[in-house]
From TrEMBL:
Keywords: Thiamine pyrophosphate. Residues 210-346 form the Thiamine pyrophosphate enzyme central domain. This is Acetolactate synthase large subunit. SUPFAM superfamilies: DHS-like NAD/FAD-binding domain, Thiamin diphosphate-binding fold (THDP-binding). It comes from the Bacteria. It comes from Solimonas aquatica. Residues 409-560 form the Thiamine pyrophosphate enzyme TPP-binding domain. InterPro entries: DHS-like_NAD/FAD-binding_dom (IPR029035), THDP-binding (IPR029061), Thiamin_PyroP_enz_cen_dom (IPR012000), Thiamin_PyroP_enz_TPP-bd_dom (IPR012001), TPP_enz (IPR045229), TPP_enzyme_TPP-bd (IPR011766). GO terms for biological process: isoleucine biosynthetic process; L-valine biosynthetic process. Belongs to the TPP enzyme family.
Length: 591
């Protein structure tokens, strides 16, 4: 019995009832508005999965526990809530642990539950125990909080704290271990409490700080917004849109926050990968950073582009984690709180005196429009006759439905996408901070499940990245997700080929370990896993193929052979678009 909740009044009213631990876990998640579970059920969790089905949950079982965590992360990014990922004891949770690390670095709230042998077995001094390893200590450095349920009546307090930790400060994963003898025990508890009854929900910022920030913005010559991926993950885009319009300013995207906010697409520019953004950074005298760590890919807001122009610019930082203030650069006005609350506070402070649009904004919008149009008109002929990676990006993203979710994976192909992207998707699912290949397909699955399979999903990926979790195509087929997957195929690890050339010079190495079989056909593999397959070897035909695939209503994989020389940037990556700028992320010790 959970003592702190069973009051005499509650007991007398009959509101306390008996319930199994596994069903109580589901109730606690339902109180948070969560009714989806990712994982492969085993003896520890079959009762939970069965109960979840009876309660109307979405149950998503992948084919690899690592994909379990990635799918959960994709779901969390689309829902703005913690996701639930479950893995069996021993090898299952061990395989899922890579996704814990990914969620930690990607700042994504995922609650991982791992099974464990009964305590009487786990605590023995024995060798040769089956499907067993001491798990909790292994994961402590991979999550924000790692714990184990010792007694059934710890269930409520443990999960409540998990919800607190994964959403407080910098969001991230937690790990809860359930020994097999505990999860089927019985509790006497009342109905689950709402979140506001046991944790701080979307806290606001200090009022005096909000007033100071508003004053800086009003008196600025060229204020800008620097927007990171937390804006998308918290589903706060329309709140930030109102702020951008009140500020009359351009919006700079971080490379991780490259989802466009509906209604302000034209005034949004990618930091580092568009010339217009260079000018905006140089002119900016007040920067409002929202939903970003101001990390290495934006040169900590201090180096590279920020070292030019108005270097004495003021910084306003909307950040939930107070410990982040001032870590990467000095902050003039910290607004500590949840951006979902703080951005409306700032809007309210500016509504009485909104700024006019910056006079250069129309010119910047037109210049970037011309940049994208010029990229689409370039000569895409290749020596091999295979598709140019730039054309692969252009034709795929021109054909992307306006309301599509865009999932991305790969190395060189993603670098080309930053430059050649022709669409302005409102949701982009990509692995920024951890730089982990193979996340793309599970991310896309989780995002589409979160969306209820309503919106089309375009997943652009390289062949090497796609092979990591290609078995999850069966999940795409099983749920009949509205997904078109466009695979750029050069039969090699593209970025690593470039590293060999840059390290040893062109033709001076056999480049061991980075080339693989040219006989792989992803369209045929897709058909074997229940999806539709297409083969397109002419860039100008790719857009029509994507349109046809979406119209078919069937999940589709399109195999596109791309030119390896172009994709690897030719000799030493010299022709990879903006590769020199991408490399500035890794300026060891210089930022």
């Amino acid at each position: 019995m959970y003592g702190e909740e069973k009051t005499p009044a509650a007991a007398a009213s009959g509101s306390v009832r008996k319930i199994k631990v596994y069903e109580r876990i589901l109730e606690l998640f339902e109180a948070e508005g969560i009714k989806t579970v990712f994982g492969i059920p085993d003896p520890n969790f079959v009762h939970l999965f069965d109960a979840a089905e009876r309660r109307g949950w979405d149950i998503v079982t992948p084919h690899h526990e690592l994909a379990t965590g990635f799918m959960a992360e994709g779901w969390a990014r689309m829902k703005g809530k913690p996701a639930l990922a479950i893995a069996t004891l021993g090898p299952g949770i061990a395989l899922a642990s890579g996704a814990m690390m990914d969620a930690l670095v990607e700042n994504c709230p995922v609650i991982f539950i791992g099974g464990q042998r009964a305590r009487i077995t786990e605590r023995r001094v024995r060798r040769g125990r089956i499907q067993f390893i001491q798990q909790e200590d292994l994961f402590k450095n991979s999550v924000k909080w790692s714990t184990s349920i010792e007694y059934a009546d710890q269930t409520d307090e443990t999960f409540r704290h998990a919800f607190r930790v994964c959403q407080s400060g910098t969001p991230g994963p937690v790990y809860i271990e359930y020994p097999s003898h505990v999860i089927q025990q019985e509790l006497e508890v009342p109905a689950a409490l709402p979140p506001s009854a046991y944790r701080l929900v979307e806290p606001g910022a200090d009022g005096n700080m909000v007033a100071r920030a508003a004053a800086l913005i009003r008196n600025a010559e060229c204020p800008v917004l620097l927007v990171g991926h937390a804006v998308q993950c918290t589903r706060a885009g329309q709140k930030v849109r109102e702020l951008a319009q009140l500020m009359g300013c351009p919006v700079l995207q971080t490379s991780g926050g490259n989802a466009f906010i509906e209604g302000i697409e034209d005034r949004t520019f990618p930091y580092l990968f568009a010339e217009v953004a260079d000018e905006i950074v140089a002119k900016a005298d007040v920067v409002v950073a929202i939903g970003t760590e101001i990390g290495e890919p934006v040169h900590y807001g201090r180096g590279y582009l920020w070292a030019k122009g108005k270097v004495d610019r003021k910084w306003i930082y909307v950040e939930l984690d107070a410990e982040a203030i001032g870590q990467n650069r000095p902050i003039d006005v910290p607004l500590v709180g949840d951006l979902r609350s703080v951005v409306p506070q700032l809007c309210a402070a500016l509504k009485g005196s909104p700024r006019q649009d910056h006079p250069d904004l129309p010119r910047w919008i037109e210049a970037d429009r011309k940049r994208l149009a010029a990229l689409a008109r370039q000569d895409f002929k290749t020596g091999s006759g295979r598709v140019h990676t730039g054309q692969w990006v252009i034709e795929a993203t021109k054909a992307m439905p306006r309301n599509a979710i865009h999932a991305r994976d790969g190395g060189c192909t993603v670098i080309f996408t930053w430059t050649y992207l022709q669409s302005k998707p409102h949701d982009v699912i990509w692995n920024q901070n951890f730089g982990c290949l193979g996340t793309g397909l599970p991310y896309a699955v989780g995002a589409s499940i979160a969306d209820g399979g309503k919106r089309p999903v375009l997943f652009t990926t390289s062949d090497s990245a796609f092979l990591y979790h290609i078995g999850e195509l069966e999940v795409v087929h099983r749920f009949n997700l509205p997904m078109v997957i466009v695979v750029g195929v050069d039969h090699s690890w593209g970025l690593e080929v470039g590293v060999y050339k840059r390290t040893f010079g062109h033709g001076n190495s056999n480049e061991p370990g980075v080339h693989w079989s040219k006989d792989v056909r992803f369209d045929k593999i897709a058909e074997g896993l229940g999806c539709q397959g297409m083969y397109v070897d002419k860039g100008e035909e790719l857009g029509a193929a994507i349109t046809k695939a979406f119209a078919s209503g069937r999940p589709t994989v399109i195999h596109v052979p791309i030119d390896p020389v172009i994709n690897h940037g030719g000799n030493q990556n010299l022709d990879t678009p903006n590769y020199d700028r991408f490399r500035t992320w890794y300026a060891e010790g210089q930022q």
